[in-house]
Write a structure and sequence with these properties.
The complex is a heterodimer of chains A (about 300) and B (about 300).
Chain A lengths: L7 H20 L2 E2 L10 H4 L25 H6 L13 E2 L10 E4 L3 H4 L3 H5 L2 E2 L28 H4 L7 E3 L5 E3 L3 H8 L1 H9 L5 E2 L6 E4 L1 H4 L44 H11 L12 H7 L4
Parallel strand pairs in A: 1-4, 3-8
Antiparallel strand pairs in A: 2-3, 5-6, 7-8
Helix pairs in contact in A: 7-8
Chain B lengths: L9 H22 L9 H4 L2 H8 L9 H19 L4 E3 L9 E6 L8 H9 L10 E6 L22 E6 L8 H5 L5 E3 L5 E3 L9 H5 L5 E3 L14 E3 L11 E3 L4 H4 L6 H5 L5 E5 L6 H8 L2 E2 L11 E4 L3
Parallel strand pairs in B: 1-8, 2-12
Antiparallel strand pairs in B: 2-10, 3-4, 5-6, 7-9, 11-12
Amino acid sequence: MKRGKRPIGYTVWLVTLVVSLALATLGNRVYAQDNGGDWDWGAFEAMDDTPVTGKSGSVAPAETKTPAVDAADFARSAENAVPDFSSTPRPAYPIFAGLPSFEVIPSQRDSDMHPCSNCHQWVVSNPEPRELKSPHDNFELEHGLHGKGGFWCFTCHDLKNGSGLKTLEGEAVDFADAYIVCGQCHSRQAYDWANGAHGKRVGDWQGTRQVLSCTACHYQHRPAFDPRKPMSGPEMRVGLPRPEHWVPESQRGHAGPGHTPDWQREAQARQDKGMGEPATAVPTAKQTVKNDEAS
Amino acid sequence: MKRPDKDKSPEQVSDLARRRFIKGLATAAGAAGTVAASGGAWGGSTLSDAFADFFQQHYQRMNKDEIDAVLERIERQAKRRYGVDIDCRNTPPREGVVFGYAINISKCRGYRDCVHACVEENNLAPDTQYIRVVEMDHGSLDLRHGDHYYDHDTVPVEGKYYLPMQCMQCDNPPCVKACPVEATWTEPDGIVVVDYNWCIGCRYCMAACPYQARHFNWTTPDLAPDDINPDTHYLSNRPRPRGVVEKCHFCVQRTRNGRQPACQEACPTGARVFGNLLDPDSEIRYVLKHKAVFRLKEELGTEPKFWYYRDA
């Protein structure tokens, strides 16, 4: 490539990077310009060694150091959909008057696993609402879709406090109390949740109610549940007409344990070999008895 | 359990059975009525245990000592049959508790996690499932068009909703009325239970149940020793013999100790609500009071203690 054809943005970007690094060395905080260029992660990898400290004291720190996670991968990773029961429960704020008291189990990944803080513990955020470009272009905010993009990071995140949330009125909220932020718009769900008709109770059916916080089940940046492969269903009775979508047990790739009893597998093999039509064939006495089992 | 004589001819098997019978007789004679610890005959039991099994009284007519002896015998038999130390208890129902269940059908997504949690918890034969998740067309409650064999790549499917069915623990249970020997009855906490030792396997209750909630053990349940849940109760998940009817019992072994039923604990969407119907502060009472609830086949007058509701 010829020297003269290098885009001018590159030079601007290089200068910005040098200035930023200088500032980082001096004041340990960087003001980042989202200038559309490629981002050099190498400059910050060293800083990633410093553990991210959450604001909440009740949440146990993660055992391993926080890895530099690709935000999109993080959002779509399987474990993201699994509720986390291991955090310490804490009493719920009385967000609705006159309701029985209960305890909330915060989602641990909120404070310790958030990939944003990998950089934004060092980098001051740009508060200007804009279309996200690199290095943010791998992150998709799929929340508030009925508002058609009315959401912005600092609708919920506290600009002044990197590891916290805020209400719409600007009051600081801990990550562990995220339900206060969620409940501002989803008040009907929050009311049901506080009363026990929405959300997941863990532990016992009796005594003080311990419920999971909203973000334990709903990934906050893409709250809708993902479709999933179901676990295996009951075995089809031999002789019944099979629905169109039915697949033999041997060809299924199940998440869960599946089991076909020997007698049914044998009968199925006989049927598949063409030893008589399943609906019209006269079954043996032994088979007749056993066929009723699935009913 | 693998049968030891599986690869032998019928003549050999019957010869073996006869020999085992004679051996058992000899053992019994030798032990002269005391508990004989040796031998694998009598269905994995000893002669005295087999006799005690046969002459056991109805659960509701036994006193505490008799029940304790029965529990010990059940543990002994499980040890002999599966090689597993189970803990069979007889936790009584709690005062002032009647259990009820509610499912939010807006939240159920048909993952069947509850089904398999139940299979593991309750020592079910792998081809028996207490919970049936029925895939239904939107806007319809016609169970005849429901499909509980669905096996899609992903659920939920567009235009369908999911209706989990299990024993409804009816307040007016037709199965109890159908039983000719009173082997099934309603406990004070509202759970309809079965005395597996008293059941004669006539299956009348299965015919009487409008929810197809009862299941029959055609064979001795094929349990792998590693999969056996040792936390058992006489009326619920202890290892069952062949030829008896069983059904969902709201996890008696868990709920009488304050724990959630296994299906509720496993539900990943929080669609299941379980609690004490007599406690006005319980979640289930909130659901019944504030949500539009319905029960299945209400017109039959079975009064199920199992409700369905939806958001809004």
